[in-house]
Write a structure and sequence with these properties.
- This protein is mainly α and 357 residues long.
- The chain is built from 16 helices and two strands.
- Strands 1-2 form a two-stranded antiparallel sheet.
Length: 357
């Protein structure tokens, strides 16, 4: 997986730069913020791991029967750029909703605008900076769909890609609504409800979406796409659970944001559910800092230490182990894919289980 990312990222960055260079010329006439937006968007997007962008060609390679044509290679890279622009849009908007001022070790997009001289001294600087951030996210999404619509592929393939991306991203938006809502209300969620949010907010669009896009370019059947989608879902669930774990117990330098932010936002995660159950077994309730926006780092550190002591990690490891078994069975059942290529999917699975950032 590391080799895949190392090889794909510079190619994706090059394609992104070429596309945005054209947009600089086209949008310069609009006004003073066009070049600023594009510069910030390119920097922001390139600071990501570009996992989703890399998985497009990975998904194509699982089904391609021969050496990949230069046309398909270019199409996979361009679709990969669209995936990364979609990712930027979702993260920019997510940071505004969660009021996170850091992303990838630097100020999030709305926080960057808040620090601009012409904005920071205004009475409504926070509202304006968030509005500017929303616009950057919107434009990233519009750019992504333009990239897809401009692909030099058969029109029916392009149509399939556009329709599929539109449908999948709509599910992400609805799952995000569920996530945001349940972070502000007292209603508890059971494991299945939490996994549903994970599946549609993160799992499918992180793995199923880009891999299926690559498979569409390779011309696979609907049944094969559905099989690959299920594998992507399961690996995506593991990815989100690990993301939650890293956000609690990782290194803030690595994740580029404050540790314990899910506690402050009272996110309904599997870690929170496991902790709540273990506390109730001992006659305790969740600490007050869950949902406490001004919780101190000392308060969060105390909760994180208690999470470790009560064995929350062991409960989560059991869930990860079950999902890993399921993913391996789904990979084994995948049709028209060689053992060598299935081994690459196993590598992708193992990468997600063992990752620390």
């Amino acid at each position: 997986m590391f080799d895949l990312l190392a090889k794909a990222k510079p190619l994706l960055k090059e394609q992104l730069h070429d596309f945005l260079s054209k947009k600089r010329l086209e949008t310069d006439k609009v006004g003073q913020w066009s070049l600023d937006l594009i510069d910030r968007l390119e920097d922001y997007t390139c600071r990501g791991k570009m996992i989703r962008g890399a998985l497009v060609e990975f998904g194509h390679g699982l089904f391609a029967n021969s050496t990949q044509s230069s046309k398909d290679h270019l199409a996979c890279l361009q679709v990969g750029v669209a995936m990364e622009l979609f990712q930027s849009m979702l993260l920019i908007h997510d940071d505004i909703m969660d009021q996170d001022d850091q992303r990838r070790g630097q100020p999030s997009i709305h926080a960057q605008y808040r620090n601009i001289e012409s904005i920071k001294n205004l009475s409504e600087s926070n509202r304006l900076s968030e509005s500017m951030g929303i616009c950057v996210g919107d434009v990233a999404s519009f750019f992504a769909f333009e990239v897809l619509a401009s692909l030099d592929l058969d029109h029916q393939l392009v149509r399939k890609l556009l329709v599929f991306c539109g449908k999948e991203l709509a599910l992400v938006g609805i799952a995000q609504m569920n996530d945001v809502y349940h972070g502000t209300v007292a209603q508890e969620l059971d494991k299945e409800a939490i996994l549903s949010i994970y599946r549609y907010k993160t799992g499918r669009y992180t793995f199923s979406l880009p891999m299926i896009c690559g498979a569409i370019i390779a011309g696979v059947s609907q049944d094969e796409r559905q099989q690959l989608g299920k594998i992507g879902e399961t690996i995506g669930l593991i990815f989100q659970i690990k993301d939650d774990e890293i956000g609690l117990f990782g290194a803030s330098v690595k994740i580029g944001k404050r540790l314990g932010s899910d506690i402050v936002e009272n996110k309904k995660t599997l870690h929170r559910l496991a902790y709540k159950v273990l506390l109730e077994q001992s006659g305790y309730l969740l600490p007050a800092c869950f949902g406490k926006k001004d919780a101190s780092q000392a308060e969060l550190d105390q909760v994180l230490a208690d999470l470790r002591q009560r064995g929350v990690a062991k409960e989560i490891d059991r869930e990860l182990s079950q999902l890993s078994v399921l993913a391996r069975a789904e990979i084994d059942a995948l049709e028209n894919v060689s053992k060598e290529k299935k081994a690459k999917l196993i590598d992708l699975l193992d990468f997600n289980i063992s990752r620390t950032s």
